[in-house]
């Protein structure tokens, strides 16, 4: 593979509920049939099969230690070397990895999305473009309450307790400070069509340069 054919890695981060998944999905959906893929940091939450369900509830899921970052880096490097990976699948209702994996073929554009992807310098070094989606805390908590109850099997009181005791302090300590590493800061995530247009235009240029 020529150096200029090395896949491009676009990191998209931001706090929980910031809209980073919507931004990433909007960019991905803009290129149907093109050589582009999403890699979610959430898929790389550590396996917790050895812990009881009660013990898993005590894990701090907003701390860098919650992730198997070594595996994520190995997989990202494999994709950059044009090798396919078996992507883990995470089950939020069980707080551990599911037994299945998903075969992911390498692609020319990789959108790496997650709350702490800019926290580890080894990951930052593998990215070509770093994006931070910056959304007000009140909007993020409202989105999180709705999503965690509807999609992740939580109760309102679970979500509020977890937010105040863990999610908010970890956001301040680990996520917000990574904004300084971003090349681009997007206010209001998936609602920001101008930012999404700029990103898709940039990626289109990459595809054109590579005649893809
Ligand atoms: O999609 P989002 O970026 O919000 O996912 C990250 C969030 O998922 C973290 O803030 C973490 O608190 C939450 N999480 C959870 N339970 C798990 C794993 C992650 O509440 N088992």
From TrEMBL:
<comment type="similarity">
    <text>Belongs to the uridine kinase family.</text>
</comment>
<protein>
    <recommendedName>
        <fullName>Uridine kinase</fullName>
        <ecNumber>2.7.1.48</ecNumber>
    </recommendedName>
</protein>
<dbReference type="Pfam" id="PF00485">
    <property type="entry name" value="PRK"/>
</dbReference>
<dbReference type="InterPro" id="IPR027417">
    <property type="entry name" value="P-loop_NTPase"/>
</dbReference>
<keyword id="KW-0547">Nucleotide-binding</keyword>
<feature type="binding site">
    <location>
        <begin position="14"/>
        <end position="21"/>
    </location>
    <ligand>
        <name>ATP</name>
    </ligand>
</feature>
<comment type="pathway">
    <text>Pyrimidine metabolism; CTP biosynthesis via salvage pathway; CTP from cytidine: step 1/3.</text>
</comment>
<feature type="domain" description="Phosphoribulokinase/uridine kinase">
    <location>
        <begin position="9"/>
        <end position="195"/>
    </location>
</feature>
<dbReference type="InterPro" id="IPR026008">
    <property type="entry name" value="Uridine_kinase"/>
</dbReference>
<keyword id="KW-0418">Kinase</keyword>
<dbReference type="InterPro" id="IPR006083">
    <property type="entry name" value="PRK/URK"/>
</dbReference>
<keyword id="KW-0963">Cytoplasm</keyword>
<keyword id="KW-0067">ATP-binding</keyword>
<comment type="pathway">
    <text>Pyrimidine metabolism; UMP biosynthesis via salvage pathway; UMP from uridine: step 1/1.</text>
</comment>
<dbReference type="InterPro" id="IPR000764">
    <property type="entry name" value="Uridine_kinase-like"/>
</dbReference>
<keyword id="KW-0808">Transferase</keyword>
<dbReference type="GO" id="GO:0016301">
    <property type="term" value="F:kinase activity"/>
</dbReference>
């Amino acid at each position: 593979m020529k150096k200029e054919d090395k896949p491009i890695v676009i990191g998209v981060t931001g706090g929980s509920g910031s809209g980073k998944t919507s931004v990433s999905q909007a960019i991905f959906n803009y290129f149907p049939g093109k050589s582009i893929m999403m890699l979610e940091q959430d898929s790389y939450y550590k396996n917790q099969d050895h812990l009881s369900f009660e013990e898993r509830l005590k894990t701090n899921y907003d701390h860098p230690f919650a992730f198997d970052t070594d595996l994520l880096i190995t997989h990202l490097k494999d994709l950059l070397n044009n090798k396919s990976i078996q992507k883990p699948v995470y089950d939020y209702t069980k707080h551990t990895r599911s037994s299945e994996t998903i075969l992911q073929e390498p692609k020319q554009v990789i959108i790496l999305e997650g709350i702490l992807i800019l926290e580890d310098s080894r990951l930052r070094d593998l990215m070509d473009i770093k994006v931070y989606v910056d959304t007000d805390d009140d909007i993020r908590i409202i989105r999180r309450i709705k999503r965690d109850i509807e999609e992740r099997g939580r109760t309102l009181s679970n979500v509020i307790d977890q937010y105040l005791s863990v999610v908010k302090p970890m956001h301040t300590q680990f996520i917000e400070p990574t904004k300084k590493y971003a090349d681009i800061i997007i206010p209001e995530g998936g609602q920001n069509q101008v930012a999404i247009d700029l990103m898709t235009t940039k990626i289109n240029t990459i595809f054109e340069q590579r005649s893809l």
